[in-house]
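Z., the sequence and structure:
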Amino acid sequence: MTDALSQDTALPSPGAPLALDSAVPRREAREKVTGAARYAAEHTPPDCAYAWPVPATVARGRVTALHTADVLALPGVLAVLTHTDAPRLGPSDDPTLALLQDDRVPHRGWYVALAVADSLESARAAADALRVEYDTDEHDVRLTADHPRLYTPEEANGGHPAVRERGDFDAAFAAADVRVDATYTMPALHNHPMEPHASTAWWTDDGRLTVYDSSQGSATVRDTLAGLFNVPQDAVTVLSEHVGGGFGAKGTPRAQVVLAAMAARHTGRPVKLALPRHQLAAVVGHRAPTVQRVRLGASSDGVITALAHEVVTHTSTVREFVEQAAVPARTMYTSPNSRTTHRVVALDVPTPSWMRAPGEASGMYALESAMDELAAATGIDPVELRLRNEPAAEPDSGRPFSSRHLADCLREGARRFGWEGREARSGVRRAGDLLLGTGVASATYPVLVSPSTATAHADRDGSYTILVNATDIGTGARTVLAQIAAEVLGTRPDTVRVDIGRSTLPTAPLAGGSSGTASWGWAVHKACTALAGKLRAHSGELPAEGLSASADTEEEAGRESPYARHAFGAHFAEVQVDTVTGEVRVRRLLGVYAAGRILNPRTARSQFIGGMTMGIGMALTESSTMDAGFGDFAERDLAAYHVPSCADAPAIEAYWVEEDDPHLNPMGSKGIGEIGIVGTAAAVANAVHHAVGVRLRDLPLTPDRLLPHLATAPHAFPLAVSGK
């Protein structure tokens, strides 16, 4: 077993090689804490103007009038772009970017104008002063499990079939000794990265566009802008050198980069646009709300004989996006008779999109809660129940797993957490006014990889440079890529310079799907291997220009694997529930992961605990209410949308098991950025049930939901039992 905490604090001795498996500090850390790192909105070209968007104030309809004359007369105002005079855009496969092209308002918050001025204050004042008139239509924004317009899409996100059936679920469920039939709901959730979506854009006289953009992939932004503005791709340069988080919301180009480029072309000046946080919920995607029915049928010994996971969710009328929440049930447990389905309804709401572990985070909350209910129904310990349902191969595809050490994660997590001897009964552990409970949940995330290119260069002075258009969204990509290069080249990482975050660099995929390091690292590994070969074959001093080698992993990464490749994990939580206030607090949270080779323990632990912290928010605090009458999300800033703070996560531990998987990539690594969130919400919710003795199936578990049950829960009577 590998202890992440001890590795994180025990740096190698001076002079020791610091390549892979070492807790190398993040190389841009000093720049970030001193303010030297520059983000998209911190680049201010000469004569820079500022923009502020105008969101629609109706839930559905059309713009009939925009009173721009008075606004244009205000001091400092340069332009007010509307659908009547904004630059015309070319075709795009993303209709959320067809901004200011017509008078349609598909949902509240859709941008209907853009004010541009010589200062940020003047731009905001101009946007506030603009009067817009509308013709409104009836709107529908409420998701229900029986909505009359529900339909079955062809695919869910990620290209997964919307429906999969194996065996005869109905017959097997009816014949099962023990049955669980429960429905779980989750509200819409929002990414809210620390750095809001921002862009600074300018055009040159010869028609070239340069953009600093807060994005998870500058190449995708470049290609999209080239198509929208009808210019060659090599006429567009996008820089995303430092990005303050994204969690999926910056995985594709968003409104700000298109509007900034529009305004820069219209005014002939550089334009800076940082989206106001209270507008983000409407324009940068969200985790869609879900209604999930899970049915488990099992024999008396807890072995699952029938499994159904049926998901209802929403999309927008602008673009279809279907949260793939039933997909994890196709991977996790023994299920000879299975039904997994997705149905969706197009509502007058903002378009949902990716949020950390899309599909897995939502779906595993429901599945792992149902597993906890099955454990209670069969009288089997929740850890033991999961172990009894370990499949020999991936249930849905029948493919062997490249590696699957979920059982090791469960056993090691139970040992570290002190699970043995846990009181099986719920609602009986008490400390004064507090009820205490513990819970467990499994986690999974697929191994994803995309083709990438990279170049490795050796200089005369013994230093190296790696060129790859990776994006560091706060995960430590620069550091780990330097470690990969150093290991192949037989040098120390501090001799390796890594150049990333610019669309003119060798093409690489975006940072998303926990696939960044695997994709970029594979290309870097291949390029460095080729460079090392050149260096061995070279005699004498290197030429003045040095030596270089490039690599492309299209063939390797595009090759279909005969294995089912997934990372796995186990989460253990202890909570306290205040019987007076109904408040839930997480006392301890522990995760153990099987994620291939851990390339840097320091940055890995950071990713694991970051995901787990987001999972606490998903379970206890984060919620976005759709106002049915107003047609908008009510919680639209960090004052109303409550993300966890340090005080909400007092003791979080992340560990991992050694896993040697030769079927992944040259580094043997799996993605780690998202699996930390996947099982956390279920572990916390299961712990709340253990504490209170009442099963709540609607997230988040806020005091108003708990208080009505506390008066009738088992603890309301004198307690004769207390303990661990």
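The first strand starts at residue 49 and ends at 55. Confidence is low (pLDDT under 50) at residues 1-16, 716-724.

Let me know what you think.
H.
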